[in-house]
């Protein structure tokens, strides 16, 4: 494009996504219920998902509702090979890593890996810092870590069943590359060396070796207790009771400080921007509504820019795994309505 241009159409369908690529806009709309907005975040969506079309549509008469409804992840990594500025990758963890705040204090229930994302997000911001730590082992990472993004899952992207099955007996190559090259990973054979590396990485010197060792050893003792009431240990055992998780998703239960499971690995976890749960208010046909509740002539919206339907179909918390369905359904409804309006 070498200059300005203008296109006119009887209908316009806005499908520009949310605001996750614009950190200033994320902070501007950050909900008070999740604590203070993070100073630093990594970006889980391309740069063009910046909320610009929300503002343009608002200027055209559309109404934005529920802008404080959003869903961001707590297990973000800085991508060593970024595709867009500030590109973050999310860890999809199994249940066994220990999770600590920036000062080395272990989170309690339900702030365990793979549990309640938004509750954990609130706990992290309440700690006064915008990052947290996994302390884990090579054995756990090899079995329990998965990464978001099609480029991080060549087995699924390329429909390679043998490569997919190889996750059962080896650490997937994309994960091993992050362990080796990722800026957020610290590996060590001893806990003192691990803590030294953690404090060196952040420059904050917040993690105390004695306190961290006390908490890890306390969790490790619960591994030996078949009647343990440690909520995370109980969750690991529940996962291992399911054959599918035992086979491909949950490492055999072991002590974090077991040298045979090592080396020890700490992972700095950043807040990763992702989904907007509010947006342009629409009716059931995807027509964008104005401040009086009337449809703006010729203007439609679908997908995340419309809060996955109506301007906030998910409410404040949503349910992981249900976002794509809202995009597909509103896209179908809106497409049919726009086609009928121009027939």
UniProtKB/TrEMBL annotation:
Signal peptide: none annotated. The keyword Acyltransferase does not apply. It comes from the Bacteria. One of its GO terms (molecular function) is steroid dehydrogenase activity, acting on the CH-CH group of donors. SUPFAM superfamilies: FAD/NAD(P)-binding domain. InterPro entries: FAD-dep_OxRdtase_2_FAD-bd (IPR003953), FAD/NAD-bd_sf (IPR036188), KsdD_DH (IPR014614), Succ_DH/fumarate_Rdtase_cat_sf (IPR027477). Residues 4-324 form the FAD-dependent oxidoreductase 2 FAD-binding domain. Keywords: Flavoprotein, Oxidoreductase. Gene3D superfamilies: FAD/NAD(P)-binding domain (3.50.50.60), Succinate dehydrogenase/fumarate reductase flavoprotein, catalytic domain (3.90.700.10). PANTHER family: 3-KETOSTEROID-DELTA-1-DEHYDROGENASE, KSDD-LIKE STEROID DEHYDROGENASE RV0785. This is FAD-dependent oxidoreductase 2 FAD-binding domain-containing protein.
């Amino acid at each position: 494009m070498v200059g300005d241009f203008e296109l006119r159409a009887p209908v316009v369908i806005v499908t520009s996504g949310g605001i996750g690529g614009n950190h200033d806009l994320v902070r501007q709309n950050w909900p008070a219920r999740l604590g203070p907005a993070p100073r630093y975040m990594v970006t889980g969506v391309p740069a063009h998902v910046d909320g610009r079309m929300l503002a343009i549509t608002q200027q055209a008469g559309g109404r934005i509702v529920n802008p404080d409804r959003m869903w961001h992840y707590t297990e973000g990594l800085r991508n060593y090979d970024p595709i867009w500025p500030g590109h973050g990758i999310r860890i999809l963890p199994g249940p066994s890593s220990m999770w600590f705040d920036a000062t080395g204090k272990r989170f309690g229930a339900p702030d365990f890996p793979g549990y309640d994302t938004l509750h954990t997000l609130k706990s992290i911001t309440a700690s006064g810092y915008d990052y947290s730590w996994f302390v884990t082992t090579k054995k756990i990472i090899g079995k329990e870590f998965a990464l978001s993004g099609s480029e991080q899952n060549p087995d699924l992207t390329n429909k390679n069943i043998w490569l997919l099955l190889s996750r059962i007996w080896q650490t997937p190559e994309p994960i091993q590359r992050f362990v080796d090259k990722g800026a957020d990973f610290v590996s060590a054979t001893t806990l003192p060396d691990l803590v030294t590396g953690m404090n060196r990485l952040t420059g904050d010197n917040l993690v105390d070796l004695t306190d961290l060792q006390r908490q890890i050893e306390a969790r490790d003792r619960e591994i030996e207790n078949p009647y343990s009431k440690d909520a995370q240990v109980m969750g690991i055992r529940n996962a291992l009771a399911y054959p599918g998780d035992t086979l491909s998703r949950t490492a055999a239960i072991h002590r974090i400080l077991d040298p045979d499971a090592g080396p020890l690995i700490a992972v700095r976890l950043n807040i990763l921007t992702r989904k907007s749960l509010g947006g342009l208010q629409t009716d059931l046909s995807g027509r964008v509504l104005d401040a009086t509740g009337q449809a703006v002539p010729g203007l439609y919206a679908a997908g995340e820019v419309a809060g996955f339907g109506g301007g906030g179909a998910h409410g404040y918390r949503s349910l992981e795994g249900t976002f794509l369905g809202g995009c597909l359904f509103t896209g179908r409804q809106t497409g049919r309505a726009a086609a009928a309006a121009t027939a």
